[in-house]
Structures are given as C-alpha cells and as structure tokens.
Amino acid sequence: MNTPQPSESRARAARRAGEFPPAPEPLAVPVFDSHTHLDITVHEAGVPGGSGPGGAGADDPVQALIDAAAKSGVDRLLQVGVDVASSVWSADLAERNPSVLAAVALHPNEAPRLADLDEALREIEALAAQPRVRGLGETGLDTFRTGDEGRAAQELSFRAHIAIAKRYAKPLIIHDREAHADVLRVLDEEGAPDVVVLHCFSGDAGFAAECVRRGYLLSFAGTVTFASAGHLREAAALTPPGQLLVETDAPYLTPVPYRGRPNASYLIPLTMRALAETTGTDLDALCAAVSANGERAFGPWR
Q: Cβ(63)–Cβ(47) under 8 Å?
C-alpha cells in the first residue's frame, strides 16, 4: 500500500464520494491483479456504480468488485493484508472465493505501533500455513512514514517475514518506500525466498536492474502512467516480460486519466496498455506473460 502524497486529501475525498471511473475496454487475454485491498476499497470508496463508502446499497460489495474486474478481463486477484485483522479477513475470503488468493503480513508502518510484535508475527505465521494464503506481504521497509524511532521494529518485522516465507515456501511481497538500498541489504543478509515481488515498484532503472539481476518480480501500479513517472517507465522498459507483474494497490494509485479518483481491479487494463506501450510489447502477449508469471509465482487460483 503506497498512498500518494500531494493530492492525498483530495483523492481521499473523491474516494469517499464514490466517484469511480468508467470501465475501460476489456482485455482480450485475461490477467490478474497482483496486489489489491478489497476491504479498504469497500470501506473508503464503496463499489463502481454508485454504492458509496462501506458498500451501502450493494448486496455483496466485495463480490461486486470481483465481478467488475472479471468484466474487464481481470479474472484473478491477490488480496493483501496489512495487519492481523485484515490478514485474517483476506485468508477467509480466499478460502471461499475461487477468484481470490491471499497474502498476509504486518505492513512495515504497522510494526512499530504494535505493543506485542512477536505475538502478531505468530498470528501471521499461523495464517501463512493455510493453502490459499500464497504470499507473505506486504512487508518491507518505509522510511517515508516511519521515523528513526520505528525503523528497528520495521527491520525486525521484515526479517521475520522473510523467515516465515522461506519456512512455508511462499512468495515475499515487499513494500519499499524510499528504502531501496536497505531492502536489498536485508534480503542479501537474510537470503531471499525463491520468489520475491517488489510491490508497486517505485525505483529507477538502476534499482530495477539490481532487482532483475537477482531474479525478483517487479509489479507496476497505476503510477507508471503518471506524467512525472519517467523513471518508472524506464524501469519497466528494462524488465523482462517474465519478471513483470501488474497491480492496482486499490483503492490507491489510480492510473491516468483518472488519477485521484478511487481505484479498483477493473481498471487494470489502463495500466496494462501503458506497460505494453512502454515496453514495446504486443498487449495480448504481455497479458499472457503477466498471467503466466502469476501462476508460476503464486500457483493456480482454482
């Protein structure tokens, strides 16, 4: 979860007003959303079609979001937890919905706030054992929102998540905000799991090259469409199709031309088309590659 900075208050107001963008042209070759927060989307924005915050007016707001995504050619979702409660919710949803897999973790900004970090980590590890929990994340480091006083707890939590991911052979999904060098340092010191995903990739081409060299997956969000994000397009251009993923981080980071309005998985086609243009790859071929990357990293949804 990487929330935008300057327009955050306006974006939050738009989300709370339920101003979802219109559905884009669907993808011909289905893909999956490698990182979404259905629970937060319903709570902050509701669902497309007029149901406001909390999903009032929708019989099943979470299913409405899943159905809207499917109509756009986004037929699978990875629902990501950010604390114990949302991780439990994510695991429960994945257990009963064949279109959803779950990732569970303590967000790096959550770790310093916890009175008993060890107990929370034990609860995350118990969830990691569940068969439809297919990732440990989002975990990592964030030096933007957490000051010096909280960074020891962040790093302790990050190292613990790496260990859990390796014990259960699950992908590690990393939140990295202004901490590129430290993320690589900790991964190198601990030894990375077999599958590492850089969620909402935010680095430049140099950092991307280091991640690609290590065999990590780079997941690009709607930020790659922003006019100011030339460095992300450079990073995407050098990422091999076999190491590329796409995500929303919904309800945040809505792609252009709807930046600032609420995001949801049905808008993935906008980001996919931008990635196809940036990488000079046929759209259908890139969708097929992204889909294959997801199945290889997380296993089958059904």
A: no
Banded pLDDT at 1 (limits 50, 70, 90):
low
> Can you tell me the distance from the alpha carbon of 253 to that of 246, in angstroms, rounded to the nearest whole number?
12
119 is annotated as contributing to ligand binding = no
Report d(CA 122, CA 237) in Å as an integer: 39
Terminal-residue alpha carbon distance, the chain: 26
Q: What is the pTM of this model?
A: 0.92
The answer to whether 37 is a known ligand-binding residue is yes
Whether residue 155 contacts residue 117, with contact meaning beta carbons closer than 8 Å, is answered with: no
Residue range 39-63: mean pLDDT, rounded: 84
CA 230 to chain centroid? 21
Band the pLDDT of 53: cuts 50, 70, 90: confident
Is 161 flagged in the annotation as binding?
A: no
List the domains of the chain with CATH numbers: 8-17+32-298 (3.20.20.140)
- Identify the burial level of 96 via C-beta atoms within 10 angstroms of its C-beta, where 0-12 means exposed, 13-18 middle and 19 or more buried: exposed
142 DSSP 8-state letter: E
282 is in an annotated binding site: no
**pLDDT higher at 48 or 139:** 139
Please, what is the angle between helix 180-190 and helix 205-213, to 10°? 10
Distance CA 105, CA 164 (A): 10
